[in-house]
Specification:
Distance between the termini: 35 Å
Number of strands: 9
CATH class: Alpha Beta
Largest sheet: 5 strands, antiparallel
Strand content: over 45%
CATH superfamily: Cyclic phosphodiesterase
Structural class: alpha+beta
Radius of gyration: 16 Å
CATH architecture: Alpha-Beta Complex
Length: 178
Amino acid sequence: MVRRVFAALPLPDEVRQALAERIEPLRLPGRLIPPPNWHVTLRFLGWVDETVYERFLYGLTPVEEMRRFRVTLGRLGAFPNPRRATVLWLGVDKGSETMEALNEVTETAAVDAGLDPEERPFSPHLTLSRIRPPEAVARVVETGIEIGWVCDRVVVYQSRPARGGVVYDPLETLRLRR
């Protein structure tokens, strides 16, 4: 079986709801990512077969030795920049060091499973909308939204097309220690 896979940090349901309520009045441009799909990606693998997938999972065992940590999201930003944005995101204000350590584990697991190393540097963020064609979003990125939670798990998801977009199905959950 071949699947499109990524490892990420999910948001608890109550945080998703609170964040959705806070961003609604901002009238963000572009195609909004549905709240059930909100997450912070640690490593995108792409299309992988069962052997690569199993090797990747095996390489994630160090995750379960890592401790839970506090995450705070706060600053809005845009890729590639606010003058010509194609992606609007919410940045990580607290917890990025632990996210970087988790990214290193997932990156090592992916390479050890036979995938090419990720070329782009890790930049932890939560994607809020995709903007086509590019648009100036300086008025939006001046806004800050502070919201936080205790991250207690890493989830490996399968991404699959569905009516009206994409659905992320959790495949594996790795719990962080207390």
